[in-house]
Write a structure and sequence with these properties.
Length: 476
């Protein structure tokens, strides 16, 4: 199965090859070599193991997902290593892992002078990583004679993984693919009509819909300095951070009712609107901007970008009063909805935790009361609540542990903490040395490898990666 995925991944090189030929940037040979290496490795793996084909078990699916993401990032480094002089394997792997996990952290500078095909490769990795690569696997692997249902359950974010949108997982995957592609096309059209050059529009479409945040300009959205373009980005970032199941059901029903029934969407939008207004007013009162309209403009764009784990920047928010960027870093930890391309623990888990805290308050006041938890009219079983509590514990342990290790390796505590938050929540920029106006290139190889692991762990929602480290996983 890994071999088939590798062969399919080799086809993704056709996009940068076409861009390279169009711009004649000299990188086409690197991409052709990478595609051939990718395909040959996949073909050999498939040829050597096809006789062992069987139904995928839960442990197989978990390991397959982890190896697909980590191995895919490794193969994707080849064009970067061949084209960018002096780039180390650690930095190249960090860049491609950041792409496939839709994190958006980068070690590269002088993006404006990079070959266009390299920039589009970075963007296309994010587009694939956001929804494309897993939906592609779900849709095509069953057609190739292997199961896809287990993979879907292993990778799908959120605690309620068994919700079925259609009777067959392949049909669901195709539906999600169509929605993802359709929204991407709409985003590209909107950017182009707003005045973006077509290549910039393509690049930023590939990194907006997966809430990735890679740009082909060092200045990110400062390069455009356009309220209209920023407004379009805000809209599509919000759309991408809402559960794609709701988009699917809304399209199928031709109604907005699925959004109203979505237990996360309402919380998400209220928190986003309230935070934008609050941070905008705060920046104006603190004198960062001389008028409220400008403060609201920059607060809204940067806050939505960070909270949805996209990572674009129209201002260096690292220079704002510390409360504003810290609030944004707090939001990215939970604001995005499950089933979206955003990172963090997801809004559904935050809602469950809030309701559990409230339920404990009721129990303190009325010890004999029965207080069932309901979300969206559905009863939430205690096993789900316990799973969410365990997830939160592991999430906090990972953040604290990684921050301590990075601090011990020489980083200041703000840089270390924000780098961990940025990577484990698949955000991109952090604060201090890794702020939006800088890159991660100042970090050493040990720190880079550690944060690459953090991105993988965060994208696959902790348990999927950490469970393979337990002896029970390997026990027959």
């Amino acid at each position: 199965m890994l071999g088939m995925i590798a062969m399919l991944m080799s086809l993704s090189h056709l996009v940068p090859i076409a861009i390279s030929l169009f711009h004649d940037d000299g990188a086409q040979r690197a991409f052709v070599f990478s595609a051939c290496l990718n395909f040959a490795s996949g073909y050999v793996a498939w040829l050597a193991t096809r006789r062992f084909r069987r139904e995928v078990l839960a442990r197989d699916a978990i390991l397959l997902v982890v190896l697909t993401w980590s191995g895919g990032a490794l193969f994707a480094t080849v064009p970067l290593l061949l084209v960018i002089p002096g780039l180390s394997l650690a930095d190249a792997y960090f860049e491609t892992m950041s792409g496939l996990t839709t994190t958006g952290s980068t070690v590269l500078s002088n993006l404006d002078s990079l070959p266009q095909s390299i920039n589009i490769w970075r963007g296309f990795l994010q587009w694939l990583g956001g929804m494309g690569i897993i939906v592609l696997a779900i849709a095509l692997l069953p057609m190739l004679g292997v199961g896809g249902r287990q993979i879907y359950k292993a990778e799908t974010p959120g605690p309620m993984k068994d919700t079925k949108l259609t009777p067959r997982i392949a049909e669901t995957a195709k539906g999600l693919w169509i929605i993802y592609f359709g929204l991407s096309l709409a985003c590209f059209t909107a950017y182009a009509l707003a005045g973006m050059p077509w290549f910039d529009a393509l690049m930023h479409t590939l990194t907006t819909m997966p809430t990735g945040g890679f740009s082909n300009h060092d200045a990110s959205f400062v390069h455009f300095d356009s309220p209209l373009i920023e407004s379009i980005a805000i809209f599509f970032m919000l759309v991408a951070a809402i559960n794609f199941s709701s988009h699917f059901l809304a399209l199928r029903a031709r109604s907005i009712e699925p959004y109203r029934r979505d237990p996360e969407a309402g919380w998400f939008l209220v928190i986003m609107l309230g935070s934008c207004a609050g941070i905008g007013a705060y920046l104006w009162l603190m004198g960062v901007y001389t008028d409220l309209a400008t403060a609201l403009r920059h607060a809204s764009f940067n806050l939505v970008s960070v909270a949805t784990s996209t990572g674009y920047a129209s201002q260096d928010f690292n220079l704002w009063p510390i409360f504003a960027p810290l609030w944004m870093m707090f939001l990215v930890s939970f604001a995005s909805c499950s089933g979206s391309t955003g990172g963090g623990i997801k809004m559904i888990r935050a809602v469950i935790l809030y309701k559990q805290v409230y339920r404990e308050f009721i129990r303190l006041l009325h010890s004999t009361a029965t207080t069932p938890m309901k979300i969206g009219g559905q009863l939430v079983e205690n096993r789900i609540v316990f799973a969410v509590l365990a997830f939160l514990f592991i999430y906090i342990v990972c953040i604290v542990s990684l921050t301590l290790v990075l601090t011990a390796s020489g980083l200041d505590v703000v840089t270390a903490f924000s780098a961990v938050i940025a990577c484990i929540n698949n955000l991109g920029p952090g604060l201090n040395q890794v702020g939006p106006a800088t890159t991660f290139e100042s970090l050493n190889d040990f720190q880079i490898w550690l944060l690459s692991i953090a991105m993988l762990v965060g994208r696959l929602e902790l348990f999927t990666v950490l469970v393979i480290l337990t002896p029970a996983f390997w026990r027959k």
